[in-house]
Amino acid sequence: MSARVLSQLVVTGFVLLGLLTAGLRYQARHESQIALEDSLWELTYELKFTAKEPLAGEPDATLRVGLPTNRPHLEILKEVFIHTGLDDVLRPPSRTTGNRELDLTTERGGQYDVAAKFKLRLSPETSWGPQQSMESLTEVSKARFIRKESDFPVQSAGVQSVVRQFSREDDNVAKTSQALFEHCMNLEVPGKDDFGADIVEWALANKTASSLGKARSMVTLCRAAHIPARLVAGFELRQSDNPKPHIWVEVFYGHRWVPFDPALGYARSMPIQFISIRRGRETVVGAMRANEVQAKYSIRSMRPAPVVLESELIPPLQIFDLTRLPLKMHEVLSLMLLLPLGALITAFFRNVIGIRTFGTFSPALLAMSFIYAAWGTGIVILIVVVMTGLVGRSLLERLHLLMVPRLSIVLTLIILCVAFSVSLLDYLEWTHSAQAVLLPMVILTIFIERFHVTAEEDSVAFALQLVLGTTIVSAFCYLLLNSDKIGQMLLVYPEAHFFTIAVFILIGRYSGYRLVELWRFRDLVKSDKP
Amino acid sequence: MNNDSKRFWAWPDELARSGILGINQRNVGVIIEQNPRHLYPRVDNKLMTKEICEERGIMVPETYGVLHEHSDCRRFLQMIGDRSEFVVKPASGAAGRGIIVIASRAGNTFFTAGNREVTWSDLRYHLSTILSGLYSLGGQIDKVIVERRIVSHPLLMSIAVEGTPDVRVVIYRGVPVMAMIRLPTTRSGGRANLHQGAVAAAVDLETGVTFGGVCENRAITHHPDTKKPIAGIEIPSWRELLDAAMRTSDALEMGYVGVDFVIDINMGPVVLEANARPGLAIQLAHGQGMLPRLAFIDSLDEELRVGQQRWELLPHVAKLSATPTPGLPSH
What we know:
The complex is a heterodimer. Chain A is of the alpha+beta class. Helices cover 47% and strands 19% of the residues of chain A.
């Protein structure tokens, strides 16, 4: 097998390995994260009604029960219906409202009991991020949502005058609906005797409305302003023995329905614990030819899945997750994990661009020292180190010393100078602590040894050229290593370095021209064009 | 070729169409394929190169002696006897580093070819720096070779300054691909190293006559110091040199080598060293890329690439340059 094919295989292998481990762990983490934040709820309906005796030519008595629907934040885990003597038909979700409803019909009169139980999971995080599905309204449905209804006296004088006050010609839907929302929200809370607080005309005239009255008022006002609007009946999920359905409003913005809750003050989005049951209605249960409909609901918070309670236990795969290590080790570990990326930058600059540096890790180490020292101090140290080295070298040349002792003297001189300049910086209070310059000093000292060996072996000019190259590359490493986000990401997913290895192999097999060669060989291009 | 082009770069596809071998392709596609790692000591250690050449009867500079450790430095004066001309060089040096050429002496004071004075103390210091590995690859402990000074052919000396011009032949799978003569300049400090500012001119493989020219990555026609034209020079003993080059590459068993020669006034072409990673500036000297020639050699059958048949190939190789639509050879 040729080296090329083999390295392609290895690259693919590493990428797959990285995808596999990171993917598995991402999913595991994500699931446990979700399970931690999720909550389980039990919603119960207890319904009673009396069906009318059947009449020829009349439809059968029917109870229409609104059911919760799967939504981005809501999942229905289980649903159970208990009833006797009733025919049940699960209606498909309506095209205009998306409502899921259960029709219970009977041909015999009498009293009936119905119970329904839903197990629901509420997830703050949706697996695919927030979804906003686009909708469009047909002319027919649009007409349906701006028309006058018994509860929505669109054409009444009181309604029209409020609309004229708030809706201007040049306002868009958002502005108008916000203005109408504010008006309804700020209606006074009714007293005990205010029996008209649910009625729109009364509420607007007396500037007093119940929750239902506010919602109805907003729908009416929106419709009067030719904005499609509807009521939504639903529940707020919280522990409660006898919750009342909550009613809010949805306004059509031209491409989607936007919720407003004039009773509680939510605008444009509802908290996720508000689950809608029936849109376009103000009750959860509707009845035809049935009397004495009584509905009692209850919502209970349920015990979470066992996984959640055991989430402190570490599954074997999470051994890769380094964030579980003591916090003190994080900084060092994340710097360590960033080093291969620094080497990647160096390799890229060398083999693809053509900028040479001292060694492979030097630019990354240099960048690291600058991070520790703050770049101002780092540059001062760098200049001191290079200058002392150059001066010391020329002074020592006459002594005819062997290389290792001579280099050692240069290094000692450098360390002295750096130590003094650090002390000076500290004296002048330019730097926070001497601690901050210790690591940079050690790294720079190693760096300077390479500089002087190159200067000896080759020439000072070439060594300076390498210094320049190293500085440029370490500037890029600095930008990378300085990023907390990447370091944090690598602590969580160190196996991302499988990809790094794959990229290294790709760079290692890269046989195209280096960027500097485009300049170097520019004279060799045959001019086929005149 | 646009000698006076004002452009600052070429597009990659333009380079590929001109058949330029880039450094990555050289490393990945040529060197790794052709030069087995374990054979590198044969070229990296000049003592070994010399031994291999001597076994095959290829001319190398006569060795006066080898210093193995610091205590050998004391024997040095005894070793050179009353010779006033010799060369001191590290066995594992690269790119001409650490080489001192002594051209004359007065007692224990020596003078380099550039007439710089080197006292015995200076020289002994230099010997110990070589031994401690300053010039060797990776700073390993090194040896010092003391050998005969090659007196370059006067024809070549007339166009160079200070140092000795050398001829490099790049050989691919046993067949010479390109050749160039490298002329030291004042800038290069007498070293025939293109990175340090030496001048190079291409040598026609068939005739041994120079053409083209390059200095500091730009095309030139005249030597910057002597102002003499560098094209049209006929390299003395050219066939002999090529023959030695081919036999050296056969002996080294490496598929991609540069063999460096100096042409001695008496001995003719002498192998100085071989290089397993010859640079790419030779393409600049030619004003053309190397890839078409490599591709041609790759297309040949094994038996055409050995022995005396190779002479038949040279006229053809020498004329090969990028055709308008060549495909890149895949190695």
